[in-house]
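[recover] target loaded
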């Protein structure tokens, strides 16, 4: 009997580049829900039908990414449930939270405001969230590679660590999303995840596992990682986006580090070959590829 296809192993074998692959999202709403989660966690969960459908519609209309979260191997809270709203802005990210009493309270949140970078009506917090994708019904790699990462982070950082439903990029599992900065990390295991999370909590990124900052377009993410690698710059807030300009398949990005401007040119094209990019993929697609043309002081 042949081994089942695993997209993460295939992506690693191909050498798929991590940089510039974070889902492009600035507004997140995270709802505590112990599961089980179906293939589509927003649709296939045990929230009341008269809540989850209008909630999903409101999130979609507002451009808000709706995810479910849960504690690793812990029972559901007996009363109330936690909800988080994150604005993963590249310059001024923020996070709000509250414990809600009933699922219907979710419908009182102002998701239109969240989609525009304003408060949906929760309480500001300085917390950081370390969210690990363990959504096995969506992709087997997220279960097999994500759960050990979730267990390690839950042991090391029990207050900040959460399991999260699908965040994108299954072929880079184990995947993690750190909020409110919107930093996506990939190819984590139990050991590297604890190290990456530890660095993040003291204000640094890990350039070996960073996929990108979700508040920026993917070519800009690739530009940021390229510049950081050239400068050896790991401070989370050290890089500021000044401008970006698209010229055909090339993005000209100006980033500032310590008051110095740098121009990074990134050409983005689909790869020449077709591949299955997720374990459940029914067809093959090209792998988007970012080519850094130059990094120079501007």
């Amino acid at each position: 009997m042949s081994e089942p296809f695993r997209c993460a192993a295939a992506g690693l074998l191909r050498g798929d580049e991590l940089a510039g692959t974070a889902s492009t999202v600035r507004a997140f709403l995270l709802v505590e829900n112990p599961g089980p989660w179906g293939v589509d966690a927003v649709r296939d969960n045990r929230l009341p039908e008269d809540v989850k459908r209008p909630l999903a519609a409101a999130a979609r209309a507002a451009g808000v990414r709706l995810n479910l979260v849960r504690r690793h191997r812990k029972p559901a809270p007996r009363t109330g449930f936690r909800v988080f709203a994150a604005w993963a802005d590249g310059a001024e990210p923020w996070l709000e939270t509250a414990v809600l009493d009933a699922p219907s309270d979710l419908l009182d949140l102002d998701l239109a405001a969240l989609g525009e970078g304003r408060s949906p009506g929760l309480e500001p917090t300085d917390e950081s969230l370390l969210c690990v994708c363990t959504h096995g019904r969506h992709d087997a790699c997220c279960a097999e590679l994500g759960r050990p990462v979730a267990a390690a982070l839950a042991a090391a950082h029990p207050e900040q660590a959460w399991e999260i439903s699908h965040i994108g990029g299954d072929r880079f599992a184990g995947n993690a999303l750190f909020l409110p900065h919107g930093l996506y990390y990939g190819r984590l295991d139990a050991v590297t995840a604890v190290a990456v999370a530890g660095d993040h909590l003291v204000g640094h990124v890990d350039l070996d596992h960073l996929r990108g900052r979700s508040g920026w377009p993917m070519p800009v993410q690739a530009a940021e990682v390229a510049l950081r690698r050239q400068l050896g710059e790991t401070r989370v807030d050290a890089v500021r986006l000044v401008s970006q300009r698209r010229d055909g398949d090339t993005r000209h990005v100006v980033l500032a580090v310590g008051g110095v401007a740098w121009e990074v040119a990134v050409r983005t094209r689909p790869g020449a070959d077709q591949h299955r990019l997720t374990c459940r993929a029914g067809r093959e697609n090209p792998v988007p590829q970012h080519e850094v043309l130059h990094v120079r002081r501007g």
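[recover] notes: The CA atoms of residues 262 and 294 lie 10 Å apart.
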